[in-house]
Specification:
Jelly Rolls, alpha+beta, rod-shaped
Length: about 170
């Protein structure tokens, strides 16, 4: 194996290794809503009230994990938009947990006490669990991934040029 082919081969391998490290998936859990409020009898809280909407992250796969704790006689919970068919008019008394997987785009949460006769205290927590390539959250790793990809391309071109040169010199 000639020196040029060996250099091209190693550049290609190093670039490919860096690029694959760049693509390693990382999972983050972030609390995005943590609020408490009172829902009076005959009223609704949401969709335009504080802590009742959330837009998921981009550049990754995510899921939403929510928890509602109701003190009082109970309320109806409705979650609207993508993949929430199972979360329509759920009666919550005490603690209720739910998951939206996969989650994508905007979500609105409505706490309905229109049929209730007393005020309910509600605590609402929402976490987003999202997976993305390692380099998306780190500028130095993002640059390293781009350099790895460019090294892979440069090594591949070097190998191709060496092969063509050997073929033409026969």
């Amino acid at each position: 194996m000639g020196r040029g082919r060996l250099v091209g081969f190693f550049i290609t391998l190093i670039g490919l290794a860096i690029f694959f490290i760049w693509l390693i998936p990382v999972t983050n859990v972030e609390e995005v809503i943590n609020t408490s409020f009172a829902v009076g009898p005959g009223t609704k809280y949401g969709p335009n009230d504080a802590g009742t909407s959330y837009h998921t992250r981009i550049l990754g796969k995510s899921a939403l994990k929510g928890e509602v704790i109701v003190e009082g006689e109970g309320i109806y919970l409705t979650v609207n938009f993508y993949n929430t068919e199972h979360l329509k008019n759920i009666y919550v008394k005490g603690r209720y947990s739910f998951v939206v997987d996969p989650a994508d785009d905007l979500y609105v949460f409505i706490f309905d006490n229109t049929e209730g006769s007393s005020e309910n205290l509600v605590r609402f927590r929402l976490e987003e669990i999202w997976t993305r390539p390692m380099a998306i959250g780190s500028p130095p790793l993002f640059i390293a991934g781009l350099v790895g990809f460019l090294l892979f391309l440069a090594g591949s071109v070097t190998l191709a040029i060496n092969r063509i040169t050997r073929y033409l010199s026969r």
